[in-house]
Amino acid sequence: MPAIDSAALPAIQVLEAAASGAKPSAQQVTTALLDAERQAKAERRQFFPEDLLGTWRLRFTAPQKPAYKAGNPQGRGFYLPRVAIATLGFSHDDEGQLTIQNQLQVGPTRLRFTGPAKLLPKKNLLAFDFVRLQVLAGGLTVVNLPLRSKAAKAGDFAATSVAKLPFFSFFAAQEGYIAARGRSGGLALWVKK
C-alpha cells in the first residue's frame, strides 16, 4: 500500500493505518505510539489476558526509548522487513495459566522461546519468563532445550516479583493490533496474524 499523509490524524487512526498495511512515516507511527501510551495512562485503561490472546506479528518497533522531550516526540522506529517474521503469541496452558511464545522466522527456520506469563491489569504489565528454546527447520525440531531462567525458577514463577522479570507494559489492545513498551524502554506495534 502507498504511504499516507497522516500528520493531522489522531494516534488511533495512525496506528490503525499502520496495522492495516498502510505505511505512515516512521516518525508518525512513533508519535502515535507515544500519544496512545500517554492517553492510556491518563485514562487509566486496564487490559486483561483475553485482550491479548492469539498470535500477533511485529509490524513496527521503536527500540531506542522514545519519549516526549520539551513537548516534542523524540525517537525513531522502523517497520520490520517481510523477510524476518517476528511473532508474539499468548494462550492458556492445560491448567488455565497464561503462556507466551516469542518467535522469529527467516525462511523455513524458526527460533522460538516459550514460557509462563502473568498480566497485572491495574498496571497493564505482562511479566514473563522464557523456559524453553526451540529451533525448527521446516517441520523438524532441530533443538528443544529447557532454559535456565535468569529471573525465576520455573516452579515459582507465580510468586516472582515483576521487578525480577522481563515485561511489556501494554497501552493499546484493539481487535487488529496491540502496542506496548518493553522493559528496555522500546515501543512495539503488533498486528493480529
Poorly predicted runs of 5 or more residues: 1-8
Could you name the CATH topology?
Lipocalin
Report on the biggest sheet: 8 strands, antiparallel, barrel
State the helical fraction: 10-25%
The count of DSSP E runs of length 2 or more, i.e. the number of strands, is 13
What would you call the shape?
Answer: globular
- Mean pLDDT across all amino acids: 90
Termini separation: 18 Å
| Count of runs of 4 or more consecutive helical residues | 3
CATH class: Mainly Beta
Global structural class: alpha+beta
Series of secondary-structure elements, N-terminal to C-terminal: HHHEEEEEEEEEEEEE
Work out the radius of gyration. 17 Å
CATH architecture: Beta Barrel
Output the strand order for the largest sheet: 1-5-6-7-8-11-12-13
Beta-strand residue percentage: 35-45%
Number of domains as seen in the coordinates = 1
Description:
This protein is of the alpha+beta class and 193 residues long. It has helices at 11-20, 26-43, 49-52; strands at residues 54-62, 67-69, 72-74, 78-79, 84-92, 98-106, 109-120, 125-128, 132-137, 140-146, 167-173, 177-182, 187-192. It has one domain (11-192): Lipocalin. It contains three helices and 13 strands, in the order αααβββββββββββββ. It has an eight-stranded antiparallel barrel with strand order 1-5-6-7-8-11-12-13. A two-stranded antiparallel sheet has the order 2-3. Helix 1 (11-20) packs across helix 2 (26-43). The chain starts with 10 loop residues before the first helix and ends with a strand. Residues 1-8 have low confidence and may be disordered.
